[in-house]
From TrEMBL:
Pfam families reported in the protein's UniProt record: ANTH (PF07651)
CDD domains attached to this UniProt entry: ANTH_N_AP180_plant
Residue ranges of coiled coil: none
Subcellular location: Cytoplasmic vesicle, Clathrin-coated vesicle; Golgi apparatus; Membrane, Clathrin-coated pit
ENTH domain boundaries: 26-164
Keywords, alphabetical: Coated pit, Cytoplasmic vesicle, Endocytosis, Golgi apparatus, Membrane
Protein name: ENTH domain-containing protein
GO molecular function, one term: SNARE binding
Cross-referenced SUPFAM superfamilies: ENTH/VHS domain (SSF48464)
UniProt lineage: Eukaryota, Viridiplantae, Streptophyta, Embryophyta, Tracheophyta
Annotated source species: Perilla frutescens var. hirtella (Perilla citriodora)
One GO location term (cellular component): clathrin-coated vesicle
GO annotation, biological process: clathrin coat assembly; clathrin-dependent endocytosis; vesicle budding from membrane
Stored SMART domains: ENTH
InterPro entries documented for this protein: ANTH_dom, ANTH_N_plant, AP180-like, ENTH, ENTH_VHS
Amino acid sequence: MGKIITFRDLVGLIKDKASLSKAALLSKPNAVSIRLAVLRATTHSPPAPPDDHHISALLLFGEASRSTASPIIAALMDRLHRTGNCVVALKCLLLIHNIILRGPFILQDQLSIFPATGGYNYLKLSNFRDGATAASWALSSWVRWYARFLETLLSTSRVLGYFVCSSSCSMVKENKEHRISSFLNVDLVKEFDSLVVLIEEICKVPDNLAAEGDKLVTEITGLLLSDYISSVNEILLRLGEFNERVSSLSFGDSVELVCGLKRLQDCRERLSVLYVVNKPSIEMMWSSVTELKDRIGMLNREGGRVLTWRTRGNGSESARYEQRVLLRDDSVHFQSGRLSINSVPSFLALDKYSF
């Protein structure tokens, strides 16, 4: 027996047909194919992820040129911001996620600078509500969270200078290590903090599963696992670098770093519930976090500098004892212990590009 067509499904089919017809009639010839590709990948029905051939077709358009990639992002954002349907919204967000994960660089670049004025990608779905059914109301929480997660992923990628989870990123591990070793401590702490924020956002994934979009939720969850593992690998690189230069961290940097380490530790229980995976890199990350946190605490105690904790709201912050004496090297940021000089060559300083 086939699926029973509800009135909501029928309305969705009519809207899809109308949108396709409007795009074919009113769009310029060069834009017709792009708009049709977006619409076909984000139909109201079925409540399942876009077909892979529809995703591949859209990504293929983005390989042509900047003049082609820009209309793709514009059409996708227009579709996302105009819809009130949770299924269409999640499909649009899945397309954005796929662009980040496996899209051509030119398409990723256009995504990272949308809108053109300002360079920030605000998906603006914090107030999204689809109250057509109880299931769509529940699925709306996934739309709001997924948009916020993708915003965080884009923000973290801007801080790092490359897309965290992208398969098209050509930077191999050795190049990343060399790049990271050239950073000032303050910049390394900033990158680590941005990765912790991304992990924290993964932990905020909704618990409820809406039957109407269970296939969509399953697809999103699978992509998140890939993002989580990629983030772990990025964090491990920076933890290794911190271990190389831990004795040269200023008190201020050590405060910020320990804050980040503790926040990351607070995510462990939630992550173990979300993802039951046996990956050596994950276990290595948790052991490295504990080891580094203990080393910093020991060094600060030996230097007469004490870290205490107080709780405020939902998070923790580090506080300094008023009696602490500021040492001369507290305000000096050293380079990696692997480098023989403290100054950063000009060509390395330019290596960290931003979106």
